[in-house]
Design brief:
elongated; 2 domains; alpha+beta; 7-stranded antiparallel β-sheet; 7 strands
């Protein structure tokens, strides 16, 4: 333990000797085993929090050598692998913060503009989605839209700087945003229109 050899090498580490002590009836073995498991749990938690999934999985694999039939360790490993897959998928997404313009009729019958703010996510599989995170629409409108390849007809900039997205069967969508976000959205959504 003092040397930091908690679970390695397999036959000469703190956990190995703790299990031998426990099997021989020595209570110190149980205390050492608990210390090692608590330390490993913190180490795995820290690795997961830092998105170092390979290290977390390696630590679970090391523990599994000592507890080969543990359903708890198998479930933990599976959970970490799902987190890793989710992180990989998320890293491949492109994100743009946009304001989606709404045209509404005011009480006096005049058409006015409102908007909601959200995130446009572009995935490498050719899909895009806009999800409202906050609305500034007096009617509470907060849009969630999925753009698939077959739906996007045209993407262009209008003279007033709006990014205009024309779709088949879903209507048109106009977006404001920072220039870099608009350019990224234009390139990503435009590629859907060209497919």
């Amino acid at each position: 333990m003092a040397a930091g050899h908690l679970v390695e090498p397999r036959h000469d580490c703190a956990l190995y000797w703790a299990q031998l002590l426990t099997q021989s009836g020595n209570l110190r073995g149980t205390n050492i085993e608990k210390y090692v498991l608590d330390t490993m749990e913190r180490q795995i938690y820290s690795a997961r929090a830092n998105k170092d999934y390979d290290s977390a999985i390696d630590d679970v694999n090391r523990l599994t050598q000592f507890y080969p039939g543990s359903g708890e360790l198998a479930a933990l490993k599976s959970q970490i692998e799902r987190e890793q897959q989710h992180q990989t998928t998320e890293a491949q997404l492109k994100r743009y913060i946009l304001q989606h313009r709404h045209l509404i009729f005011a009480d006096n019958g005049q058409m006015v503009q409102a908007y909601c703010v959200g995130v446009l996510l572009l995935a490498s599989d050719g899909t895009a989605r806009f999800d409202c995170t906050m609305t500034f629409d007096p009617q509470g409108r907060c849009d969630h839209v999925i753009f698939q390849t077959s739906m996007v007809k045209e993407v262009k900039f209008l003279k007033n700087g709006l990014l205009h997205v024309a779709t088949n069967h879903m209507g048109n969508f106009d977006f404001y945003g920072e220039p870099t976000d608009l350019e990224g959205a234009y390139a990503g959504l435009g590629s859907l229109a060209r497919r």
